[in-house]
Amino acid sequence: MGVFDRGTGHEQVVFCHDQASGLRAIIAIYSTTLGPALGGTRFYPYASEDDALSDVLNLSRAMAYKAACAGLDLGGGKAVIIGDPATDKTESLLRAYGRFVQSLNGRYFTAADVGTYVEDMDVIGRESTFVTGRSPAHGGAGDSSILTAYGVFQGMRAAAQVAWGKPSLSGRRVGVAGVGKVGHHLVEHLLADGASVLIADVNQAAVDRVRALHPEADVTGPEELVAAPMDVYAPCALGGAISDEVVAVLQAKVVCGAANNQLAHPGIEKQLEDRGVVYAPDYVVNSGGLIQVADEIEGYSEPRARAKATEIFDTTLRIFRLAADEGVPPAVAADRLAERRMAEIGRLRRFWLAER
Ligand SMILES: NC(=O)c1ccc[n+]([C@@H]2O[C@H](COP(=O)([O-])OP(=O)(O)OC[C@H]3O[C@@H](n4cnc5c(N)ncnc54)[C@H](O)[C@@H]3O)[C@@H](O)[C@H]2O)c1
Which of 106, 189, 258, 278 is 20 to 30 A from 286, comparing alpha carbons? Predict the structure, then answer.
């Protein structure tokens, strides 16, 4: 299906091709209502161009909602490069891509995502000024997973406040599914707060790394984790973690994790609510990484970015309150909050101002 026929409401979708380097990329700008679109570049061996297009359209929309809820003056965008990052990623391909990013003249800022890393942003940054998530050596903020994990922890504290009347995980058991870049930092926050943790990962090396530092962390299999006795379930691996099957066996009272697009299909948020589970919306609690790369645009300040990520606690609480007031699940309340901010702040554009 073509872009227009999908009726997704995107402002602009750009197909980028450089035959010599093999670059095939799609940049999708969902909205620039609040500011320039910001979102990472995913480098992935999509089975078809259609799959790549669907992914970039969904991801860019989610970025607009994430930025709006996080209180940032940014719109939502995302890019995908079709290919296997292990074999297809070359300097010329990345630089060709960088020139396409530059051609949008600041309507889109890129950053790292699945399959791209800080060092790739440095290469893209040789062709474009609209790149964030670069290395500290190039004026960047570096690895975004530290603030992402910190933000998820703040969101989890807010969910604990709603579930148990106290903004602390002390004495709670938290199951962390996926202890990669974000998950292993989250484990550190949880242990420091007095929680006990149960971890699972399909990659034994990731488990071993956590256990080496924190022998008190308990380990189980990825399949077993969801049904294990625990107070909080923290999906920190891939999307779609909360399926019908998972809701049926979940014992946790709170779901709060870093993974994007956790709800496997629309309607799951209602099932969670019906079962009395407090669900902290994924794109709200995992916005610490976006906050970090957004801060880089101003010239990175770690204390300023951390202070902004601390606000995830208040934002998550606000969403739970809005959900209660309006009688909707928190995931719906988060969407409403984002849409209201886009409408209220976007409305101000009708006042003409001379170029600043
Ligand atoms: N890194 C960031 O700043 C950031 C920001 C926002 C959202 N996220 C999201 O958070 C999630 C984790 O990101 P990350 O940067 O830590 O990625 P990562 O690749 O470093 O870690 C993911 C971990 O999950 C494990 N895993 C994969 N499938 C699994 C399964 N079925 N069960 C258990 N473990 C499994 C992997 O082995 C890996 O160790 C992703 O969904 C990502 O999109 C990350």
Answer: 106
Q: Taking the alpha carbons of 314, 317, 318, 319 in that order, is the dihedral positive or negative?
A: positive
Same domain for 18 and 43?
yes
Q: What CATH number is attached to the domain comprising 47?
A: 3.40.50.10860
Indicate which residue's Cα is closest to atom 40 of ligand 1. 259
Q: Are 22 and 134 found together in one domain?
A: yes
Distance 115 CA to ligand 1 centre (A): 12
What tens-digit pLDDT sequence spans the chain (356 residues)? 889 989 999 999 999 999 999 999 999 999 999 999 999 999 999 999 999 999 999 999 999 999 999 999 999 999 999 999 999 999 999 999 999 999 999 999 999 998 999 999 999 999 999 999 999 999 999 889 999 999 999 999 999 999 999 999 999 999 999 999 999 999 999 999 999 999 999 999 999 999 999 999 999 999 999 999 999 999 999 888 999 999 999 999 999 999 998 999 999 999 999 999 999 999 999 999 999 999 999 999 999 999 999 999 999 999 999 999 999 999 999 999 999 999 999 999 888 889 76
CA 42 to ligand 1 center in whole angstroms: 14
Nearest CA to ligand 1 atom 38: 180
Q: Whose CA is nearest to atom 15 of ligand 1?
A: 181
Residues within 6 Å of ligand 1 by CB: 144-145, 148, 177-183, 200-203, 206, 222, 236-238, 258-260, 286, 289
Enclosing H/E stretch for 317: helix 312-326
Distance from residue 183's CA to the centre of ligand 1 (Å): 7
Check if the beta carbon of residue 134 is closer than 8 Å to that of residue 109. no
Domain count, the chain: 2
